[in-house]
Write a structure and sequence with these properties.
single chain; mainly beta; Methylamine Dehydrogenase, Chain H; five-stranded antiparallel β-sheet; four-stranded antiparallel β-sheet; globular
């Protein structure tokens, strides 16, 4: 999430400390941005009205024709030489370059697809009605039994050995192969879990009521204290030994150990931060945040 973190950093240089966020022109106008990812050497942002834009450094953005028409695009991933974008009404499209897109049959029917990842050998997509599907090539998809029943699945991550999926009503499940899933006790009780990431040997999940939890194995979860209060936390990403979370009302918080969290000034002026992504264009590590009103900002990592 591109929040302007002005005035929150100590005068002393800190290892992997994010710099102040700087707002950029996103090319979305005031159209809401759902997700930003750094994929195959470029940033890709997607959002409402079928908008999709690419940028090599997250500063200058170019709108592309997504093939989604006016349908909302929720997320995008890259692997096996192909980009995969997913969205409302079960729509899914692939592209060889992030510019030219072709609609595919997703196996979700008309159910919203909210998140997609690539694990190194497999795409995994999740969404409404407890639906979860896998694909080796991004084109042919197979529905799996997710163990979520009809509950929405909002996010999924892969650590290199374990998949973890999160969703509505505090539900969380793990899988070794993305095919067979086991529900776990998440420590979120009935609060929605919107997003999950992995780094520093921790799985870190965030969601409704300002909740953050960590786990070393995906099965046993510990709630953590964070400075943003009960505001909804929408998205998390990890890079340069730093976790960053964005959420409602311009919330931005970060951690370098997954346990202690520090508030950051987002520069979003109270608008929601929907998404945050870590990337390293031209060898310069940075976080990119985006959300309501087409707002988008960048933050460099200083060592």
């Amino acid at each position: 999430m591109l929040k302007s973190l002005h005035g929150i950093w100590s005068s002393r240089v800190r290892l992997n400390a994010p710099s102040a966020f700087t707002l950029q022109t996103s090319s979305f106008g005031t159209t809401e941005i759902s997700s930003v990812k750094f994929l195959n050497g470029q940033f890709i942002a997607v959002g409402n009205s079928g908008k999709l834009a690419t940028s090599p450094e997250a500063i200058f953005w170019t709108q592309q024709t997504s093939s989604f028409g006016t349908t909302t695009i929720w997320d995008v991933a890259y692997g096996a030489g192909v980009y995969v974008a997913v969205g409302a009404s079960g729509k899914l499209a692939t592209s060889p370059d992030g510019i030219n897109w072709t609609q595919r049959t997703s196996s979700f029917g008309t159910s919203i697809i909210l998140n997609v990842i690539y694990s190194g050998s497999l795409f995994v997509a999740v969404g409404a009605s407890g639906k979860l599907a896998t694909s080796s090539d991004g084109i042919s998809w197979t529905q799996r039994t997710s163990s979520f029943g009809t509950s929405i699945i909002y996010g999924v991550t892969y650590s290199g050995s374990l998949y973890v999926a999160v969703g509505a009503a505090g539900k969380l499940a793990t899988s070794l192969d993305a095919t067979t899933w086991t529900q776990r006790a998440s420590s979120f009780t009935t609060s929605i879990i919107y997003s999950i990431s992995y780094g520093l040997n921790y799985y870190v999940a965030c969601g409704g009521d300002g909740k953050i939890a960590t786990s070393l194995d995906g099965s046993i979860w510990t709630q953590r204290t964070q400075p943003a209060g009960p505001l909804t936390l929408r998205d998390i990403d990890f890079g340069s030994a730093t976790f960053f979370i964005g959420g409602a009302n311009g919330t931005a918080i970060y951690s370098t150990d997954a346990i202690s969290w520090t508030a950051a000034d987002s520069s979003f002026s109270g608008s929601n931060v929907n998404t945050i992504a870590y990337g390293f264009p031209t060898g310069i590590p940075k976080f990119v945040a985006a959300g309501q009103l087409g707002l988008l900002g960048t933050s460099l990592i200083t060592n």
